[in-house]
């Protein structure tokens, strides 16, 4: 199903939205659609295609774009329709900042990972920055330990064609900080993943302070900012054995690093500063065992301006504000040719999960959710018009939500927001649907005037009638509903098998399936498709025109 939009209010989609006022290509917002789907070739991790797509999308779209829709969902809700498990894990694994028994902190790992990725930036020629080049740099000594490898493996399988790895790395910093009680860092999207390693650039603890100052200058930070950024980074996590055996002894938890926290607290707070200033710090990068200062990089950094900056950071408010600014600058440090989006704020109205379905009881059913940025329950009604029409001939074209849920996440909590998500699942008369909109406490919310338009209903994926085929080679029976007021010349799917690599298979035709009774004005077509984890595009050619449902997925099959 394709849905059209115009105006400025966000919308979503189970398949695609486009603008009615600007001629735009149709894009899917489906996370499963994945990075490399358009290629007939096999791509390892899809970096190449990812890059191409990221460029294609940007510039073609005005706000709100699929990119913003996806990032907004992940940032504020911790999920987005169609998100692969990996993505949900990514947010969930931050786990409210609770460190493990050995002090291992996933929040710290994300922040360190992001800094090491950004550290390739060269302010003199505008190259490098937060661009996922880190994935090609993990064999360097400077990137050893501290959860770096693990943070990397958590990325495999993540992005789709809109959201880059580097956007996810940047988001990790925002979420890690806020989940640990730190400030809200404004977030932008639009980073582009690099295909190659950048030059080495991460400081190592034995270096003299002059090297640190020069390294941070190259990364775009003054000496004062260097002090702030190191303090903000080192409020979380600590030094690991076996990475620094001379600083930290081995622990007694088998197969786990032994970690000495920099400031003894797992929270994002300014204890890193106050303990340093009052001499109570156990930070091993301030003083090593027996006062050895070879690896005392924090001491050299913090004291490099006579502690002036550290003293200013002794105010918790100033520490929080400084970290919000500097960590924000850190994640927005990108190669010169990359243009980031505006800050992504929670969208006032967010439509998602639009799915038109030929219901088993013979009704055509419209499913969708609408998330409203309101902390108070509202009277919400969904309205729509008939297909290809501006009227409702049956007189019954409105529905109330079947349920509503309060959305709570740490970031929303920090913003003192608790939006409400309204779920609609309503039968639609056989006149189908043209455009829908909402009435909220008597006020019309219609996507800036144009409403949310369903672009076609001729061919629909029918996940309810599709199934996993047990026995023998792994396969799915894929079922499509095709409106039976005309006969398609062909119904087919292009499938993409997903694993570490993604492979596009040749098209597979679906044939009329007499075993499935017609329903809601639709006949059903099916084919058995080999594979265990597929995404696919569904097509029907009718009267010389091609209708399409993009980026469907076997994950939708119960
Ligand atoms: C002069 C600059 C810096 C030096 C020399 C330095 C050095 C180190 C060292 C030696 C460790 C311990 C790693 C391990 O045991 O494997 C560490 C950990 C860490 N660094 Fe830095 N760092 C610097 C700047 C930064 C910056 C700018 C950030 C982020 C804004 C940052 C974030 C972290 C974090 C979060 C950890 C803890 C990781 C964990 O617990 O897994 N560092 N750093």
From TrEMBL:
Protein name per UniProt: Peroxidase
Entry keyword annotation includes Kinase: no
Top-rank taxon: Eukaryota
SUPFAM superfamilies registered for this protein in UniProt: Heme-dependent peroxidases
Stored PROSITE patterns: PEROXIDASE_4 (PS50873)
Every Plant heme peroxidase family profile domain range: 102-279
GO biological-process terms attached to the record: cellular response to oxidative stress; hydrogen peroxide catabolic process; response to reactive oxygen species
Source organism of this protein record: Mycena albidolilacea
InterPro entries listed in its UniProt record: Ccp1-like, Haem_peroxidase, Haem_peroxidase_sf
Record flagged with keyword Nucleotide-binding: no
GO molecular function annotations of the record: heme binding; metal ion binding; peroxidase activity
Enzyme Commission no: 1.11.1.-
Keyword field: Heme, Iron, Metal-binding, Oxidoreductase, Peroxidase
UniProt xrefs under PANTHER family: HEME PEROXIDASE, THYLAKOID LUMENAL 29 KDA PROTEIN, CHLOROPLASTIC-RELATED
Assigned protein family: Belongs to the peroxidase family.
């Amino acid at each position: 199903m394709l849905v059209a939009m115009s105006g400025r209010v966000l919308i979503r989609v189970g398949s695609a939205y486009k603008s009615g006022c600007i001629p735009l290509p149709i894009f899917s917002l489906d996370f499963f659609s994945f990075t490399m789907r358009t290629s007939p070739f096999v791509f390892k991790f899809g970096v190449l295609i990812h890059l191409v797509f990221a460029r294609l999308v940007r510039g073609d779209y005005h706000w709100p774009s699929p990119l913003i829709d996806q990032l907004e969902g992940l940032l504020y809700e911790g999920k987005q329709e169609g998100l692969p498990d990996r993505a949900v894990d990514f947010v969930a694994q931050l786990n409210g900042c609770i460190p493990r028994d050995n002090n291992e902190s996933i929040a710290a790992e994300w922040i360190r990972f992001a800094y090491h990725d950004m550290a390739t930036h060269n302010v003199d020629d505008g190259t490098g920055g937060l661009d996922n080049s880190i994935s090609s740099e993990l064999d360097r000594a400077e990137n050893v330990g501290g959860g770096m490898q693990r943070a990397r493996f958590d990325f495999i399988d993540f992005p789709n064609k809109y959201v880059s790895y580097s956007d996810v790395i940047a988001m990790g910093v925002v979420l890690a900080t806020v989940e640990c009680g730190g400030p809200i860092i404004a977030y932008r999207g639009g980073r582009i993943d690099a295909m190659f390693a950048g030059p080495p650039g991460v400081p190592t603890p034995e270096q003299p302070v002059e090297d640190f100052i020069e390294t941070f200058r190259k990364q775009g930070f003054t000496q004062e900012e260097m002090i702030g950024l190191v303090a903000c980074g080192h409020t979380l996590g600590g030094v690991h054995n076996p990475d620094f055996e001379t600083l930290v002894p081995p622990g007694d938890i088998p197969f786990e690093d032994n970690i000495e926290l920099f400031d003894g607290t797992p929270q994002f707070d300014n204890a890193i500063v106050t303990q340093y200033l009052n001499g109570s710090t156990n930070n091993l990068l301030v003083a090593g065992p027996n006062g050895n200062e070879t690896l005392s990089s924090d001491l050299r950094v913090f004291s490099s301006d006579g502690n002036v900056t550290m003293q200013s950071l002794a105010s918790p408010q100033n520490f929080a504000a400084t970290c919000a600014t500097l960590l924000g600058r850190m994640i927005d440090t990108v190669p010169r040719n990359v243009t980031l989006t505006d800050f992504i704020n929670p969208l006032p109205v967010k439509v998602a999960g639009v799915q038109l379905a030929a219901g088993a009881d013979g009704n055509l059913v419209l499913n969708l959710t609408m998330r409203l940025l309101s902390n108070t329950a509202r009277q919400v009604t969904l309205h729509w018009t008939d297909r290809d029409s501006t009227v409702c001939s049956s007189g019954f074209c409105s529905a109330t939500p079947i349920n509503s849920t309060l959305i709570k996440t740490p970031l929303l909590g920090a913003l003192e927001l608790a939006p409400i998500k309204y779920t609609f699942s309503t039968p639609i008369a056989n006149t189908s649907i043209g455009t829908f909109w909402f009435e909220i406490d008597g006020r019309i919310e219609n996507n800036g005037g144009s409403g949310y338009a369903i672009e076609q209903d001729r061919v629909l994926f029918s996940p309810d009638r599709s199934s996993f085929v047990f026995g023998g080679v792994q396969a799915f029976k894929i079922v499509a509903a095709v409106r039976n007021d005309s006969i398609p010349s062909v119904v087919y799917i292009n499938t993409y098998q997903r694993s570490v690599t993604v492979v596009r298979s040749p098209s597979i035709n679906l044939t009329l399936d007499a075993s499935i009774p017609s329903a809601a004005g639709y006949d059903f077509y099916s084919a058995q498709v080999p594979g265990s984890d597929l995404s696919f595009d569904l097509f029907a050619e009718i009267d010389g025109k091609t209708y399409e449902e993009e980026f469907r997925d076997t994950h939708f099959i119960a």
